Every structure is written in structure tokens, then in C-alpha cells.
């Protein structure tokens, strides 16, 4: 839901009632991950997607029904061999979808006059996400009927908006679980007991994390960097281009970048606070820039470090890095020559090959063609598939 938060927040501010359908769990080959959402307002306008087209019409109708009834509903969609024309997923997977009506005219844009107001909590979550603030929204997607749909908003400083009902321990435990997923920048489901313990009647929560976009830092103000900045923005990264040469590192040459920095690459890197989602792309292929930069980059807990250059340049670079004390385990993290083998020649094609390697690294893909392969199309998240009705 937070992926379409900006538009939903505008709906709230305009007092438009709507229902939002959110994928809360998947099993097998599912087209969209948990957190994907479709929203429908009282006039029938729709935004977002939960399946890429397979079950959109049926979910649209569920949203309209929820707007009339005012009740949340949890539904499952999967493929039926007995009736191939029934509403379902042709890819063979199963998705669970929670539909929640939101009465914007009752104060969605505010936090609500009562802490238990689900509408107020959802409104606060949408407002936070629209402003780019860090927060986690935990919603009950399975458990006692009176609790399904209840929501709790958790911020990094520990403050909370809303309640899941029941005992105070439930909110505390849910907040701890949400904070853990928020710290990792992840969206997923967790199971706890209805009383906040690890026993008793189970409650399953969908935790959606709203975090600033991950960073892509491209070193080297060259034409390949301009193409990569555009692809990085398309993938949702906050893109920085850094180069020590002011004549090349200009905003006009990199219109897709969020920022262009004139600084020696290793000095710029030393001054940054980076997280585990950050990707570093070294396109300078110049030893005086590359070696001090990679010496530092390969020791940072970032998601990806790639460096451009020929195989001969790569071998020379490895020798230079070993000479300054970089160990073999650290060198094994280096993706060089950068990118997947797509036969790329142009800057745009090369940017695509780099982006493909970044996505494969992030999602656990093999990078091999799917045609004739026996690898999964959609890789399961770490920990395996999550389905509702079980306590983690």
C-alpha cells in the first residue's frame, strides 16, 4: 500500500473514500510480492496493481463491495485445474489479499481522534510515506475476526500510532517485530500470539516498511554513468554521480541523477553513511581513482560493488588491491568486469547489463535465460514462502 501512498494521501486530503486491497502473502509463482496494492475510490477510479492483470477485475469488485459494507475482507486467489476460466492466477501461484475500506471523510489525513482509529492510523502511515519518512505499518491479516484489519504505525524512535487491540503486550510485541523489519528495510509477514506472547491464538501481521530509497553511487562522470543514472532512477534508487574532475561532473551532463558531486571518490565515500541496500558502481577504470576507492568499498557492508574495465584491467586492479592489503575474501565481493554478459556495446546497453546484475544479486537470480531453464521465475524471499495462518 505504501508504494502508492503519495496518490492515496492526496485522496485523503480531498476527502475521497476508498478501499485498498493489499497482497499480504504469496505462495508459489506469484506476480506481485506482499505489500503490492490496488486502491479503488467511491467513483470507481483505480490505482496500483496486485497481480499484473490476472485477478484485478475480481479484486476491483471486492473493493467496491468493501466500500458499501464498511468491512475488511481477506480473500485468496489461485489457479483451478477444474475450471481454467475461473478467476485465478494462470501462473499457478496463490495470493492472499486483504481489502480494507478507508473513510477519508472521517479524517484519513489526520491521525484520528482516538488511538484505536484504523482510519487514522492508515492516514498517518500514508502521510508519513508520502513525505518520505521512515516508518512501519503493521496490520492484522489473520487471527481473531475482530482484530483483522487493525493497524499499528511504528516510527524509528519507538513512537506508535493506533493499536491492534487486545492487551498492551500485543502492541509492544508487534512494535518490536515491525521495528526489526523496518531496520532491514523489508516488507513481510510475522506471526505472534494474540496476547503478545509466542503462544496462544495466532495473529499474523503484514508489516510494510516505508524507508528512503536505496542509494546508487556511480563513480566516474562518463557517458556510461549518464546511462546508468537513468536506469538507476527507473529502478527506484537515489542516484549520485561522483567524480574529481569538475569539468565533467556537472548537473547538465547527468540530468537523471539526484546529485552530482565533485570530489575524489574515496574521500566522498569516507564521508557517507551507507546501509546494506547501497550499490556502488565504479566506472572510472583509472588506478589512481579505483584502488583507494575499492580498498574502502570492499570493506563496507553494502549490497553490491562493481567495477568497469577489461579482463586485463581487472587482473591488474586485483594485483594493486592485494598490494595495499585487501584480502581474498574482500576481493571475492568485487563484480568485475561489471555487469552480465548481454553482448552490450552502447552506454545504454551496458547500463542495462549492470542493472541486470544488480537485480540478480539483490533477488538471488542466476542471470541465465529462463527459456529452457529449470530455475524459478520468482525467487522465494529468504526463509521460504509465507502463508497466512501460521505463527513464525
Automatic annotation (TrEMBL):
Domain named XdhC Rossmann: residues: 216-358
One protein family per Pfam: XdhC_C
Domain of life: Bacteria
The XdhC- CoxI domain, residue ranges: 11-77, 129-190
Stored InterPro entries: MoCofactor_Util/Proc, XdhC_CoxI, XdhC_Rossmann_dom
Region of interest (Disordered), ranges: 365-392
Name of the molecule in the record: Xanthine dehydrogenase accessory factor
Species for this entry: Streptomyces syringium
Amino acid at each position: 500500500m505504501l508504494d502508492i501512498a503519495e496518490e492515496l494521501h492526496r485522496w485523503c486530503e480531498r476527502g475521497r473514500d476508498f478501499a485498498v486491497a493489499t497482497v499480504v502473502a504469496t505462495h508459489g509463482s506469484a506476480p506481485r510480492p506482499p505489500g503490492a496494492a490496488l486502491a479503488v475510490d467511491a467513483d470507481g477510479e483505480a490505482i496500483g496493481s496486485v497481480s499484473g492483470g490476472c485477478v484485478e477485475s475480481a479484486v476491483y469488485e471486492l473493493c467496491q463491495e468493501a466500500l458499501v459494507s464498511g468491512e475488511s475482507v481477506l480473500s485468496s486467489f489461485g489457479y483451478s485445474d477444474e475450471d481454467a476460466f475461473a478467476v485465478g492466477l494462470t501462473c499457478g501461484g496463490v495470493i492472499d489479499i486483504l481489502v480494507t475500506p478507508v473513510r477519508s471523510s472521517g479524517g484519513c489525513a489526520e491521525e484520528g481522534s482516538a488511538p484505536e482509529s484504523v482510519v487514522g492510523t492508515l492516514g498517518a502511515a500514508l502521510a508519513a510515506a508520502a513525505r518520505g519518512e521512515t516508518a512501519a505499518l503493521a496490520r492484522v491479516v489473520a487471527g481473531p475476526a475482530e482484530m483483522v484489519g487493525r493497524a499499528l504505525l511504528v516510527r524509528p524512535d519507538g513512537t506508535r500510532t493506533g493499536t491492534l487491540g487486545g492487551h498492551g503486550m500485543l502492541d509492544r510485541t508487534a512494535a518490536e517485530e515491525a521495528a526489526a523489519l523496518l531496520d532491514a528495510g523489508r516488507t513481510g509477514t510475522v506471526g505472534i500470539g494474540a496476547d503478545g506472547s509466542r503462544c496462544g491464538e495466532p495473529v499474523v501481521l503484514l508489516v510494510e516498511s516505508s524507508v528512503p530509497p536505496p542509494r546508487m553511487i556511480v563513480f566516474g562522470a562518463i557517458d556510461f554513468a549518464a546511462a546508468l543514472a537513468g536506469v538507476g532512477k527507473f529502478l527506484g534508487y537515489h542516484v549520485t554521480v561522483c567524480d574529481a574532475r569538475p569539468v565533467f561532473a556537472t548537473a547538465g551532463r547527468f540530468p537523471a541523477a539526484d546529485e552530482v558531486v565533485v570530489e575524489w571518490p574515496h574521500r566522498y565515500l569516507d564521508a557517507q553513511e551507507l546501509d546494506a541496500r547501497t550499490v556502488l558502481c565504479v566506472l572510472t577504470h583509472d588506478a589512481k581513482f579505483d584502488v583507494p576507492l575499492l580498498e574502502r568499498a570492499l570493506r563496507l557492508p553494502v549490497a553490491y560493488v562493481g567495477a568497469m574495465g577489461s579482463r586485463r584491467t581487472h587482473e591488474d586492479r586485483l594485483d594493486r588491491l592485494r598490494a595495499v592489503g585487501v584480502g581474498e575474501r574482500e576481493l571475492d565481493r568485487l563484480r568485475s568486469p561489471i555487469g552480465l554478459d548481454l553482448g552490450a556495446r552502447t552506454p545504454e546497453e551496458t547500463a542495462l547489463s549492470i542493472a541486470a546484475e544488480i537485480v540478480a544479486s539483490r533477488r538471488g537470480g542466476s542471470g541465465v535465460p529462463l527459456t529452457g531453464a529449470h530455475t524459478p521465475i520468482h525467487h522465494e524471499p529468504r526463509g521460504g514462502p509465507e502463508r497466512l495462518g501460521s505463527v513464525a
